[in-house]
Amino acid sequence: MQDDMILETISVTKNYFGDKSSGVNNVTIFIPKGKVTAIVGESGSGKTTLLNLLYGILEPDSGEVFFKEERILKREEKLQPAHEAMRLVTQNNQDMDLEATVWDSVRSGLRISELGLESEEKKITDSLNMLDIFQLKDQPFGKLSGGEKQRVTIAKALISKPEVILLDEPFNQVDATYREGLQHDIRYIVKEWGVTIVLVSHDPAEILSMADELIVLKEGEIVESGRPEELYNSPKLLYTAQILASGSQLTSEEAKSCGIKSKRGTVIIYAEHVKISKGLGAKWTVKQILFKGFFEELLIERDGVILRANNYSKGKYQIGSKISISIEDYFEFGKWETPARSLPKDL
Fold first, then answer.
1. Is 92 left (phi over 0), alpha (psi -120 to 50) or beta?
2. Which domain CATH number covers 260?
3. How far apart are CA 201 and CA 244, in angstroms?
4. CB count, 10 Å around CB of 204?
5. What range does the domain containing 303 cover?
6. Which ranges in 24-73 belong to alpha helices (H)?
7. Same domain, yes or no, for 167 and 306?
8. Lowest mean pLDDT among 155-159, 189-193, 251-255
9. Whether residues 140 and 279 fall in one domain
10. What residues have CB less than 8 Å from 88, skipping those under 6 apart?
11. Residue 38: other Cβ atoms inside 10 A
12. Could you tell me if 47 and 102 lie in one domain?
């Protein structure tokens, strides 16, 4: 293992009930130390299975998992230093006592050897302050909001300063008002404490703003990996583009309505790459307006072709409005058809 890597899997396979379409198959990954690595993919792609293999809850059918060159055994077999160096935060807080106070909940994350020491109170206080929840210390865990609960579970995981924290859908139960702050806190923890974060998510907004590295899973296999901006701006696969962005999928024939002469069978246009304008000759009709906070997503139609387009001038267009568009960029996938690729003019 390279010095800057902390976790590694070599040709790991884990299936359920003999079904090769379940779990993961022949997966090799390298997790960099002191970074945020996100595992992404559609439901059932094997994300949580891979996380549990890294943590030692599951034992692979074949292949091996390593922490700093030490092979990780299943936790039931033998407790190892690797197990002590990692903490897992689940999405449903299943290991938390709903009646316990926030203070006691976080305290329960201390190792047995740390309990009763003079530093115990400081460790708890530091963890609560790191997640900005000290003011909740006397509140029962069960009465907290989703965002507050997630902060408590992460504080509990942090209290013994593990080297790796594994997060399974960490923002799934978190309100939008808490999400950005929690993301910022996790990035701060990585920077200040040098903790390695491995998280599972299905939400592109979460992973693109947080991750240093992405691992894209499909049907239990890695199909792409790399830096978020690389995969977002230059996806090699249709699946990756669909996972990471809101966009429109067109056939090459449908793409002609957008002025695109595609050389392959499938075209993806991100909503942000559709630029809207009014004027003479407008041929697209606004069919639906979706509120997205500081912007709107318009569903527009022409000759039966539907496109998604971001509109940052909220209220400017109404359902039924006629508009013109231009396409700033697009991606092509699938069967090769013609040799030419060109950006269209205003439509």
1. alpha
2. 2.40.50.140
3. 11
4. 18
5. 246-336
6. 47-55
7. no
8. 189-193
9. no
10. 51, 52, 55, 57, 157, 165, 166, 168
11. 24
12. yes
> In residues, how long is the chain?
347
Residues 142 and 277 in one domain: no
Q: Is residue 346 part of a domain?
A: no
Kindly state whether residues 143 and 270 are assigned to the same domain. Answer: no
* 8 Å CB contact between 58 and 49: yes
Side-chain-side CA neighbours of 341 within 13 Å: the count stands at 13
Chain-wide mean pLDDT for the chain?
89
**What token pair was written down for 85?**
């160096």
Rg (CA), the chain: 24
pLDDT at 180: 79
Record the tokens describing residue 81, joined without a space: 């230093």
pLDDT tens for 82-114 read: 888 999 998 777 788 999 999 999 999 988 777
User: Residue 278 carries which side chain, given as an amino acid letter?
Assistant: K
pLDDT at 130: 85
Q: Mean of the pLDDT values across residues 330-341?
A: 76
**Distance from C-alpha of 180 to C-alpha of 69, rounded to nearest angstrom:** 35
The owner of tokens 């978020």 is 228
What is the separation of C-alpha 189 from the centre of its chain, rounded to a whole number of angstroms? 18
Give the mean model confidence (pLDDT) for residues 144-166. Answer: 90
Final residue belonging to a domain, choices 192, 211, 238: 238
Query: What distance in Å separates the CA atoms of residue 188 and residue 200, rounded to the nearest whole number?
Result: 19
- Here the CATH number for the domain that contains residue 47 is 3.40.50.300
| Claim to verify: residue 25 and residue 129 sit in the same structural domain | yes
Nearest to 62 by CA among 5, 1, 15, 7: 15
* Shared domain check, 158 and 216: yes
The dihedral of CA 136, 210, 1, 56: what is its sign? positive
Q: In what order do the strands lie in the sheet with 284-291?
A: 274-277, 322-327, 284-291, 296-302, 305-311
Claim to verify: residue 228 and residue 280 sit in the same structural domain: no
Tell me the per-residue pLDDT of 8-52, one tens digit each, with 9 for 90 and over. Answer: 999 999 999 888 888 999 999 999 999 999 999 998 899 999 999
Q: What is the average pLDDT across 317-341?
A: 85
